[in-house]
Amino acid sequence: MLPGAVIVFVVLLISLTWWNFFANRQGDISQAEPPILPAPENESLEDAPLAVSVAKKLDIPWALDFLPDGSIIFTERAGRIRLIDIKEGLLPDPLLTIDEVAHTGEGGLLGIAVHPDFAQNQFIYVYYSYRDGAGLANRVVRFRMQDRDLLDEKLVIDNIPGASIHNGGRIKFGPDRLLYITTGDAAVSNSAQDKNSLAGKILRLNDDGTVPGNNPFPGSPVYSFGHRNPQGLAWDDKGRLWATEHGSQAYDELNLIEPGKNYGWPDIRGDEKAQGLVSPVIHSSTDTWAPSGIAYFEGSLFFAGLRGQSLFEVIVDEKPTLRCVLNRNFGRLRDSVVGPDNNLYVLTSNRDGRGAPTEEDDQIIRIRRLG
Q1: Predicted confidence (pLDDT) per residue in 261-307, tens digit
Q2: d(C-alpha 100, C-alpha 236), whole Å
Q3: pTM attached to this predicted model
Q4: Which domains are delineated in the chain?
Q5: Fewest 10 Å CB contacts: which of 24, 179, 205, 246?
Q6: Quick check: 314 and 283 in contact, CB under 8 A?
Q7: Which of 189, 200, 265, 259 is nearest to 230 (CA)?
Q8: DSSP labels for 106-137?
Q9: Which run of H or E residues covers position 243?
Q10: What distance in Å separates the CA atoms of residue 317 and residue 305, rounded to the nearest whole number?
């Protein structure tokens, strides 16, 4: 009979062999529960955790962007603009609290965008809901960041229809250096088909709020219409614009956006087709993604799912394919942004009244380097 020590050694050797086999299997990386503690600085990329939390116990963060030095500026839906300094980490106090923000239902302080010429002008843009008489409306405003103050507020666009649901809210600068804005139908479906309404649209503006001369409808900020509740914008390496959109009773969408096109809400959904209306590139059918922020990196789109509680990857080729990158590891996910370090950053949205928050929520999660 083998000595006890030899038996222990053999058992350990077999266990390690099987562990390495499973650890190196190729497939959906959502099969492994990602740790949320940062890896040691001297740990190799191959050994680093899939996902780490870079900020915890946040209050319903909605959108984030990066300053030129790599610091993260982000919104919390109740009205706070906050900063994760590249050297100091999460600052305890907000840069600014916007008192007139109406945090009602899905409304509140939503999108944020750093101007592409921030190093010269220090401009920060935000989208938020506010009280308009007995109802709600949305606007985009611009601030100038000086040290850790946000000053010189300027109105960019106002009177975007709002409601307790379907406020859109994503703002991004495109490769053309123009500002793109998603708006929801504010629970009035037919407004998405009305080109004279700002509801249910993707808007396109100059950085000062004026209308570009080459917009598809002269004098109008409307870039595309027929949207229900678009919440994500991203451009691929060919300069094409993609948008995520919440569908009705599932049928969530990923759309390829072209100027002046009609994306069909409320007249078509899913694979339905009609003359003059654009169907989605892919949709969720009877599943629900509740897609929000979207980012592009090296051939793939990564979008956050709220009810789907996953980070979805769509490989963009002649026949786009979908897979889950994180599958219910962190609950509801709101935004997805590629950082200057080529890591992917996502926001959780578990304290928005529709999730099951843990003690650590809400969080900003960094997904392991993409390339």
Answers
A1: 999 999 999 999 999 999 999 999 999 999 999 999 999 999 999 99
A2: 36
A3: 0.88
A4: 54-367 (2.120.10.30)
A5: 24
A6: no
A7: 200
A8: T-SEEEEEE-TTHHHH-EEEEEEEEEETTEEE
A9: strand 241-245
A10: 21
